[in-house]
Structures are given as C-alpha cells and as structure tokens.
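Q: Hi! First time doing this. I have a protein sequence and I read that you can turn it into a structure. Is that right? Here it is:
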Amino acid sequence: MKRGWQNLFGIVLLMGFGSVAQAQTLYGPGGLFIHPTAFTSPQGRFGLNVSYFTQLVGSNTSTDWIPVSLTYSVSNRAEIGALFLERRFGEYRTSAGAFVRYQILPDATSHPALAIAGSYLDGDVKQSSVSAVFSHVFRHNGRTLLALHAGGQWARRSDIIDPSDGVSGFLAASVPLGSRFSLVGEAGTKFGFDRHETSAFGLTWQASKIIQLGIGFVNTGRSKDDRFFAGVGYKLGGAAK
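A: Yes, that's right. Below is the predicted 3D structure, encoded as structure tokens:
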C-alpha cells in the first residue's frame, strides 16, 4: 500500500464523518474509543473502521497513530478482521495483524452480554491482547438510557525497550443525547508496560444507518495526557440490528 494512497484514504474517511459501528485503536475495533465492548454486528456484515489519534510520549515528542480494520461477522455472535496500523513520528512505520471477537452471551433483560476478543499486531508495533467484557443496555419504555461496559484485558508489548505483558481492568459508559449523538466516557487501570492509566471521553454521531463518527480525547496508556481522537465506522451488508 503506497503512502500517498494511505493519506488520501484516511482524509476521505475522516471528512466523511462517518448501534455498533466501531471506533478503532491498536487493540482492534472496539465499539468504544479505546476499549472493546461485548456487542457484535449481525451475520454477513462488513465493518470498515479508521481512526486517528495523537499521543505525547516525551516532553515534546508527539506520535500520530492511524489504525485501520476491516471486519466481517461470521455469525450474529462472531467477528473476524484484518488490522493495519501506521505510526508517524517524523517517519512512517507500519504494522499489520488480525482481530477476532466471540459473544458468549447476548445482552438480555436478565443478564449483560459477555464476549471475549483478541488481537495481534506485528511489524513496527508488536502487540498481542485478549479481552473479556460485559456490556448491557439499560432501557425504559423502549428508550435507551445508557450502556455500561466492564471488563479486563491482558496485553503484551514486544517492540518497546523493556518487552513485557500486563493486565488492566476498565469501565465505560455511553449515554444517548437525542437520537443521533451519544456521550462516551472510559477509564482503565495501568498496564505494567505503560506510563499512565487509560482514559477517553467524547461524542459519537450516528450520521446514517451505516456511518458513525467518534471524536474526543484519549490516552492509550503511554501518553502524558489525553490527546485528540477521531474515528469513523462504516457498516456494510447484514440485516438491520
């Protein structure tokens, strides 16, 4: 894939600004900004997800990340996908890998959804992760009040100076603001190989039935503070959900 084509591809998607069309981090397509959810897409649906975020890793050293994924729902409860990551810090470096998610339990009035997810990246960033997460949508009179998510992640970074693995727990919430906008907040404990806890906050906009935009601020754990994030998800095919 040529660099000029990558740049044009990302710009077109972000300008398009374009429930789960998913945001995208280096852990794979999540559903939130930086953490996975237990929700899956209908069988036969393709998902194209692109994100851009910046992290401040030194006193004045800023790194730009552009993760891309293409996922496919093998069934209503199983998704697989391919991952691509470009990292920019004065030069361009790339990584590629795979993603999988399986929903053990669907969301119901009596219990939350439960899913496991895994991702693998190789190249510039060498990282493996496995997540287990509960998600539940609270409704009243047919109206969604909020969605809550809680889970844990194991991850290993092999490309850093001191390669190691670690575990992290996280909580997240999404609150609808009208019919198209939602407020998203996330917080997670620190991985042993990271500098800080994970965090995210922002807004999502359901531009259409197939396009969703997320915009906010995130810290994936290696940044000094929360930095700008923008993500777009396209849902193609599959039955309505």
